[in-house]
Amino acid sequence: MTVSERLFSIEFFPPRTPEGVDKLRAARRQLAQLSPAFFSVTFGAGGSTREGTLATVLEIRGEGLAAAPHISCVSSTRASLRDVLAQYRGHGIRHLVALRGDAPSGTADAGEFRYANELVAFIREETGDWFHIDVAAYPEYHPQARSPGEDLANFKRKIDAGADSAITQYFFNADAYWRFVEACGEAGVAVPIVPGIMPIASYAKLARFSDACGAEIPRWIRRRLESYGDDAASIRTFGLDVVTRLCADLLEGGAPGLHFYTLNQATLTTTIWQRLGL
């Protein structure tokens, strides 16, 4: 697979303040120079950032760039999601990232959907093949899955419901990704599974995110990052080396692309992209 055949994409979250809007615009101008296939924009728990997601997607599209809003189903009703889908279709949006999502803190109501495969099925029922649908994959297994087999079965249900491709949770262990892809193939799953990539800007933030989502930081990486303390430059240099090597190994092994979790920052992703010669 050549570089031109691979899919390279970039993820943002909707800014919540005017300062955040300006910061994201600056980051997006820099990242747009890389010509990614699309930018994705996250969607908060229970649709808590729904308007911000749409506004960000429309602004990206207004700049002549491709954008895919995330859509989550926890704490949502069929009627509310039907409205969201109609709104996206009305704006000519053809690509979605469909996720179960997490319920807003302090909320017990799970809504009318329990799992992402139900959301994918609903989107297909309502809109046919209008949308290209990406779903999430977990090479190191979803933190709530009781076993690898259960996790794989859950992923296959999303594909069988009509998903076109998948983006993984970020990871630092390439073997976990390849073993997951192999298991998917053995289970009859043939869609592209694009690795999710998290540039390392801060050890404290990375550790917090990883503890929350179940992504493993290998001990040798964790210990090295811990040893740098507050030395941000050393953390950045080491992180760039680690993540660039991971990306290179994945591409050399035949991964169908890369999806960068930028946290609305441009510099690290740009540097990794340039180091890879993309």
How would you describe this structure to a colleague?
This protein has helices at 18-32, 50-62, 78-90, 116-127, 148-160, 174-186, 203-213, 219-227, 232-252, 267-275, and strands at 7-12, 38-41, 67-72, 95-99, 132-137, 165-170, 193-197, 257-261. It has 278 residues and is of the alpha/beta class. The model has no long low-confidence stretch (mean pLDDT 91). Helix content is 46%, strand content 15%. The chain has an eight-stranded parallel β-barrel, surrounded by four helices. It contains ten helices and eight strands. Helix 4 (116-127) packs parallel to helix 5 (148-160) and helix 9 packs across helix 10 (267-275). The chain has one domain (3-275): TIM Barrel.
Number of helices: 10
Q: State the order of secondary-structure elements, H for helix, E for strand.
A: EHEHEHEHEHEHEHHHEH
> What oligomeric state do these chains adopt?
single chain
Number of domains: 1
- What's the CATH topology name? TIM Barrel
Helix content range of the residues, please?
40-55%
Radius of gyration: 18 Å
CATH architectural name: Alpha-Beta Barrel
**Intertermini distance:** 14 Å
What is the arithmetic mean of pLDDT?
91
Largest sheet: 8 strands, parallel, barrel
Strand order of the largest sheet: 1-2-3-4-5-6-7-8
Name a few traits of the molecule.
eight-stranded parallel β-barrel; TIM Barrel; alpha/beta; 278 residues
